Amino acid sequence: MSNENLFTVCASSNLLETNKQWDSLKHSHKLTFESYGDFTSPLFKDDDSGIVMVLFLEDLVPDLDAEIELMKEHCGPVIKMLENKALSSSNPIILCWGKDHNQNVLDTIKDSSSRQKFYNWFTEQLTLLRDRFKTIYLVHLNEIFYPFGANEMFCERNWYFARCRLSIRGLEVLTDTLTLVMHRLSKAPSKVLVLDCDNTLWGGVVGEDGVKGILLGQDGIGTAFVDFQKEIVRLANNGVIIVLASKNNEQDVWDVFDRHSEMLLKREHIVASKINWVEKAINLKEIAQDLNLNLDSFAFWDDNQLERDKMKILLPQVLTIDAPKNIFQWPRLLRTIDCFAKFKITKDDRKKSDQYKARSKFTNDIKSVNDIKTYLASLELSPAALSLDASNIARAEQLCMKTNQFNIRTKRHSASTLQSYQLENDDFVFLVRLTDTYGDHGIVSLVCLRFLDNDTIFLDTFLMSCRVLGRHLEAWVLAEIVKRVEKNGARYLITEFVNTERNAIVLEFLNTYGFRVANDQNYMVKRFELTDPEISGVIYCLDTKNIIIPNIEVYKRGE
Amino acid sequence: MNLRQILINTFTKSSIPENIDDLKMGDFDEWDSLGNFNLILAIEQNYQIQFDIEALEKLTSVREIKRFLDNDFPE
Predict the structure, then answer these.
(1) b/e per residue A169-195 (b: at least 16 CB within 10 A)
(2) C or N terminus of chain A, fewer CB within 10 Å?
(3) How distant is the Cα of A35 from the closest Cα of chain B, in angstroms?
(4) What are residue A242's phi and psi, to 5 degrees?
(5) Residues A544, A449: contact at Cβ < 8 Å?
(6) Cβ–Cβ < 8 Å for A73, A93
(7) For residue A261, what is the enclosing H or E element?
(8) pLDDT value of residue A7
(9) In chain A, where does the domain assigned CATH 3.40.50.1000 lie?
(10) In angstroms, what CA-CA distances link A90 with A133, A136, A225?
């Protein structure tokens, strides 16, 4: 049996071993506490236990204002004992070393006090030991306390009452840090960072805004994305495998890589990518197989909470990082994040991504989408169709002008054109508003239909905002369209696909939902051409009789 | 959390009776002086208060703790 969970905890003052703050560490590790003040006896025990040693400057010498040579003489033996222990044992020794702040700044800015000198000397001795022995780990308590402030971390009341230097918060920060260190001793860091693209690597949606329109570089938020990329590149150089999983047209993403001058992340950093409209969980499974890595070594970064929540449910073994809403916090979070932190970066690490790149290959997998549907059904998706009116016509026009990805023909209709279509038939122009457990998304879809002849209706416009993609809203909207087709006594729905390089998702929609390419000899197409000389794309036709719409079960709640 | 719940959470190896009014430090092994300090810290965390050091010296029984909470930190 491995003893990697066995640790003796000793300290120069009281660490309140029975306090709650130790519970989670006690749960994962077997801890034995020496009585406080006795931090040397574990160094003489010949057992199979690691050591956690917590030392405070104030406890080490009786008089911190004494001559520095005296203090060195007093504490030299501690260094010697640590050295002997490291020589004789292969178990880890985690040294935690710090000091309270109790000097006036004026006493320190022109001259170092003897306590400062001694602190620096002792720190240097510990650092030398750490560098010499691979079993010695050094935690600078003042570094880990710094973000919280010494006044929060130390507590004089606790000192005078219980000989504990730390406040409860201080104890919590200490035990959290020990947890981090001890877990990393037994478990390797994450190996793979999976990244979304839009609003993650840059601001904005490349499929909508174009390469020139995205936020990257420039100023303010654009520089935060650059700094975030800088951290990604740093991880890549340290051996983390960088993977893209994003819902885009693949070419759009590579265009940014190739043509945007502010991209620090380069194609050669990317070991594998899945840029498509498939569920990210399925993409990740495939990538894990391709790279021959376990999903539990994957960390997933996406700005979109829906995608994160789906990942947490569908692949709980993947570490889904809860990226804060505020982009400004991202660079620091990625720089300090626990899951990629490791004790040492080796030369091998630096070569690792090349090795994986060689291994990455395409494999086919049987895809199961049932769990995704179950999840979507739990979102309480509530769409509603709205007639065009004065309150929403501006939004309708805006959607027409701006939507580039899910937009069947990408016709940029003005408000007055939309109104004229509505005058032809009130059923034939409608908007869709969507609410779900994530909130009210507002108006996110627009449909325009026109009579071609008695049994055929022309799908002039069908677009959806990119912010609601991934919810199968297209299924519900199609059902709504079919209702209106039937109500008006027609049977066929005809449309054209105009390839704009950005709307590949539309092609997937047409194929998934039963549209068929109408062949040239088809009488309907001929009529169609006569009716509308503007037609330039591929003509698709859907027979709505007895139609079964895929994915619609996601919206069948309570019906 | 009420005081009894705090006692249960602090002294996990001991069984805390329904009526806690007469309990005091020393009544069971876990409630030694360090246990007492942990109890005080837990109370402070729960009620978001800080006792001064004179109070700490006296706070060694449920009766005293209740008296301090009622007098010094009325709801």
Answers:
(1) bbbbbbbebbbebbebbeeebbbbbbb
(2) C
(3) 12
(4) -100, 130
(5) no
(6) no
(7) none
(8) 95
(9) 192-336
(10) 10, 10, 44
How many angstroms separate the CA of residue A20 from the nearest CA in chain B?
7
For residue B9, the distance in angstroms to the closest alpha carbon of chain A comes to: 8
Chain B residues whose CB is inside 8 A of the A26 CB are none
pLDDT tens-digit readout, A261-313:
999 999 999 999 999 999 999 999 999 988 888 899 999 999 999 999 999 99
Let me know if domain A192-336 sits in CATH 3.40.50.1000: yes
Helices in A32-167 by DSSP H: which ranges? 57-60, 68-88, 114-132, 141-145, 150-153, 156-162
All CATH 3.40.50.1110 domain ranges in chain A, comma separated: 6-186
Of the CATH numbers 3.40.50.1220, 1.10.10.10, 3.40.30.10, 3.40.630.30, which one belongs to the domain with range A369-558?
3.40.630.30
pTM: 0.71
* Confidence label for A350 from pLDDT (cuts 50, 70 and 90): low
Residues of A in contact with B10 (CB under 8 A): 20
Question: Can you tell me the mean pLDDT for A129-143?
Answer: 95
Residue A105: its pLDDT value, please?
85
Which helix (H) or strand (E) is A495 found in, with range? strand A492-497
Neighbours of A44 (CB within 10 A): 9
- Exposure of A170 in the CB half-sphere (CA atoms within 13 A): 27
The nearest alpha carbon in chain A to B45 belongs to A168
Residues contacting residue B15 through CB under 8 Å, at least 6 positions apart: none
Does A536 have pLDDT greater than 90? no
Rounded to whole angstroms, how far apart are CA atoms A536 and B4? 78
**Long-range contacts formed by A274-277: CB under 8 A, 24+ apart:** A274/A243, A274/A244, A274/A245, A274/A246, A275/A197, A275/A244, A275/A245, A275/A246, A275/A247, A275/A248, A275/A249, A275/A250, A276/A247, A276/A250, A277/A247, A277/A469, A277/A504, A277/A505, A277/A508
HEC states along A400-455? Answer: HHHCCCEECCCCCCCHHHHHHHHHHCHHHEEEEEEEECCEEEEEEEEEEEEEEECC
Would you say residue A42 has pLDDT above 90? yes
**Mutation target vs A (from B36, B41, B43; most A CBs, 10 A cutoff):** B41
pLDDT at A203: 95
Class of residue A240 by CB neighbours under 10 A (exposed 0-12, middle 13-18, buried 19+)? buried
Displacement of CA A294 from its chain's centroid (Å): 18
The CATH topology of domain A6-186 is Rossmann fold (3.40.50)
Closest approach of A158 to chain B, Cα-based (Å) = 9
Residues A307-338: pLDDT tens digits?
Answer: 999 999 999 999 999 999 999 999 999 998 98
Each residue of A360-385: pLDDT tens digit? Answer: 543 333 344 567 788 888 888 999 99
* Amino acid (1-letter code) at residue A443: I
Note whether A371 and A470 are within 8 A (CB): no
- As annotated, the residues of chain A forming the CATH 3.40.630.30 domain(s) are 369-558
Question: Minimal CA–CA distance to A502: which of A286, A83, A213?
Answer: A213
- The DSSP output letter for A519 is P
Nearest to B53 among A16, A161, A164 (CB): A161
**Which chain B residues contact residue A19 at CB under 8 A?**
38, 41
